[in-house]
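Journal club side-thread
Mid-discussion, someone asked how the predicted structure for our own chain would compare to the paper's figures. Pasting it here so we can look after the session.
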Amino acid sequence: MNYLRVLFFYFFSCIAFSQSNKQITFRELTVEQGLSQNSVVSIAQDSLGYMWFATQDGLNKYTGRGFIQYDIQFEDVTRSTFSKLGKIYIDKLETLWVVSNSGQLEYYQKEIDSFQMVSNIIQVSTLIQDAAQNYYLGTYQNGIYKIHHKTKDTLQILNPKDAQRTVYDFLETKNNTILATTNDGIIEIKNTDCKFCLLYTSDAA
């Protein structure tokens, strides 16, 4: 993530209404247009169409005319054996979440245009919201936590022998199963009862 340019592409409504021709317009957004830094580690788009960019030198909201910057810093560490990157995530309720430096989880409060920290879980690496609106938080070396959307109960869902895993990302499948990529394989999380099975480990190679 150390290249100096972000290639940001629009699908404009000016696409030609032609049976044979469709145009896609590409446009660069860099520090010259107001981006706080050219090294972008995560991108998301909210329900209003605003684009959010995470960089090592701040969080940026692009309105289509310019950038609004927020004083939130993101990690950008990429090695041959692991990566530690900041993240922007927008859940199914249109809440914007960020994972900033040192795994700090924060969410955006639109009413006051500010971010609120979540302090009860540290070293967060990534998150996802499932179809039942429950949250899963991946961490660095602390496994996976589930937050029930109604009770707000927070539980470690991995067995003790697996609770030290680092989780890099989540993916929700069409059958509402969640896959978690870890430092030692892929974990399949069953939504109905929170059981999991290890689909792959490095030992199987």
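Post-session note: The radius of gyration is 19 Å.
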